[in-house]
Amino acid sequence: MRHNTELRKSENNAPKHVISDNGKEYISPNLEQASWIIYQFKRKGITQRDIARDVGVTPQIVSQVIYGLRTSAQIKRAIAGALGYESWGELMSRFVAHSAA
């Protein structure tokens, strides 16, 4: 079995780890991004369940978006808005700036 791992840029310029296995690609969780977002949630008293309830999805789906395993514009907007950002792009820009500091 042959595995290949590479780092790519996602649509918002955040790093995305992609693992290739016999022609199939799997996205590796972005633990740094998720940890930062979850920390921001805790600072604001927000839970993934709150976002899920507002959007009408399960907390597991919200978690997958936070970890970069799934994409949903609606959930990304809800997360960004709950944290006081105009857009997911603005939130990710803040995350990238924080990570580089």
Short description:
With 101 residues, the chain is of the alpha+beta class. Helices cover 52% and strands 19% of the residues.
**Rg result:** 14 Å
Output the CATH topology: 434 Repressor (Amino-terminal Domain)
Strand order of the largest sheet: 1-2-3
> Care to count the β-strands?
3
Separation of termini?
39 Å
| SSE series | EEEHHHHH
| Count of spatially separate domains | 1
Total helix count?
A: 5
Please characterize this protein's 3D structure.
With 101 residues, the chain is α+β, with helices and mostly antiparallel strands. Helices cover 52% and strands 19% of the residues. The protein has a single domain (29-100), classed as 434 Repressor (Amino-terminal Domain) (Orthogonal Bundle). It has five helices and three strands; from the N terminus they run E-E-E-H-H-H-H-H. The chain has a three-stranded antiparallel sheet, with no helix packed on it. Strand 1 and strand 2 form a beta hairpin. The protein starts with a strand and ends with a helix. The relative contact order is 0.15. The model has no long low-confidence stretch (mean pLDDT 83).
What are the SSEs and their pairings?
Elements: E1 3-9, E2 15-21, E3 24-28, H1 31-44, H2 48-55, H3 59-66, H4 73-82, H5 88-100
Antiparallel strand pairs: 1-2, 2-3
Helix pairs in contact: 2-3, 2-4
Search tags:
434 Repressor (Amino-terminal Domain), 3-stranded antiparallel sheet, 101 residues, alpha+beta
